[in-house]
Known about the structure:
Elements: H1 3-13, H2 40-50, E1 59-66, E2 72-76, H3 89-100, E3 107-113, E4 116-117, E5 120-121, E6 124-128, H4 144-152, E7 157-158, E8 162-165, E9 200-206, E10 216-219, E11 227-235, E12 242-247, E13 253-261, E14 267-272, H5 276-290, E15 294-295, E16 299-301, E17 314-321, H6 325-334, H7 338-346, H8 357-370, E18 378-379, E19 391-392, H9 394-404, H10 412-416, E20 440-446, E21 449-457, E22 463-471, H11 477-493
Parallel strand pairs: 5-7, 6-8, 7-15, 8-16, 11-13
Antiparallel strand pairs: 1-2, 1-22, 3-6, 3-17, 4-5, 9-10, 9-14, 12-13, 18-19, 20-21, 21-22
Helix pairs in contact: 2-11, 3-6, 3-7, 3-8, 6-7
Amino acid sequence: MTETARRRFIAVAVGLIAVAGGCAGARTGPAAPFPSGSGGPLIEAARAAVGSTGVERAAWSVAVRSLERGDTLLEWNADVLMVPASALKLVTVAAAAEAVGWDHAFDTTLTSRGVVVDGVLDGDLVVHGTGDPTIEGRGGGDFAGWIESVRERGIARVSGRIVGNDDGAEEPRPRFAWAWDDLGYAYGALPGALNVGENRARVTVAPGPLPGTPAVLSPAEGLDAVTVANEVDTAGPGSTPELRPMLEPAGHGLRIVGAVPAGGSPLTFPVSAGNPTLAFASVFRRRLVEAGVAVDGPPVDIDDAGPARATGPTAVLHRHRSPPLSAIAAPMLKESLNLYAETVLWLATGADGPRASDPALDAVRDRLAAWGIPGGHHQIVDGSGLSRRNTITAHALVAVLERFYDPAWTSPWMRALPVAGRDGTLRSRLQGTPADDNLTAKTGSMSNIRSLAGYVRTRDGEALAFAVIVNNFEGSGADAEAAIDRIASALAGFSRGRP
């Protein structure tokens, strides 16, 4: 078999022959069985990368375009639908930014029901949310201003409850085809109209006195909203700890299962806080009490609140505005925060649109079509990329990158992306390579899935937009990232031979 025939056979065998597409930058004509394009040395670098240990049997999709000349330097299966993982967050932010603008903020309102007599509110405090993901989270503020507003109204005690009103957005629920075993982890936290501390909490597990005895579980602040069941045993000394949080789909029960070694140190790890509305009301109640404002009643979700405790007037005590979308996008993309992405997705419906996933996903599809990206180039079912039912082509990602590119590299979009070797999910990657402190891109990572999509300057200073997605690799995640980084480093070191 000739080398050309061998390459064609391998490409057909893994189902990766590219097809012509109408997406921006899509090629026409026969599909290339192996990487093609005008960047000769890049083709050889890509061939070496995709044939490296741990990724030889993987499915690859690659697209690289010059943002100055408009030519395609490298592509391989660039029109094939692939699971992008968190690289999908690029589409979410782009659609939201065009729908509402970078200055848009989420509003959260605190009201009282009842009258205040001698420092006592005879009724409930009610918090009304619209999806702000930042309160007590990365990029957000705390409750100091809220508590000051309560005090300014002369309230030293609340005789009623702290009610979380989440009617400003759809009910908290897992997104389409999220894996049930992701829901207990912090990255699988449910989004809602009210969110606090990124809807995560921490649990500490210490071994029991002897092997075979139950471990000691110490839930941390933020887990008031769920019932925590301890199903962790104490294993033999020196054994490998295995801990797994399992959240019921309704978000009301969290089981911590597994084993920890006898004589070992306590282990602390983040978990989902469960029902975000109840978690918010619980944390806000605690903050009030810590500040000296007594609260007689419990925290409640409005869906379980029943009739109001008082029939007096309703007053607005505090209006909280989140940081603008430009500031929310930075932690969302740099740290790949799924919760932020799911609530930012709702903004795709516009400033006054419904805060719900289905209309938001429709708006994203309409937006992509308006940008010239055909529907056949994507199947998007959430905002974060956590669902494995999301698929998109490398060409579609590059088209979005081309649309939002800022030659000055100073726009909110450009500043929000992780920088290789410096911050975010790229802080420890590509250090000491030509891409270090040069490449800026969104990563994607799930089991047997890795992706990288963004921008890089070549050795000549030419700006490129690129997307690399690899699915179903047989090796480790580190193997896949190393292969992607070889391609990224080659892009940064590429030269057209300018003098």
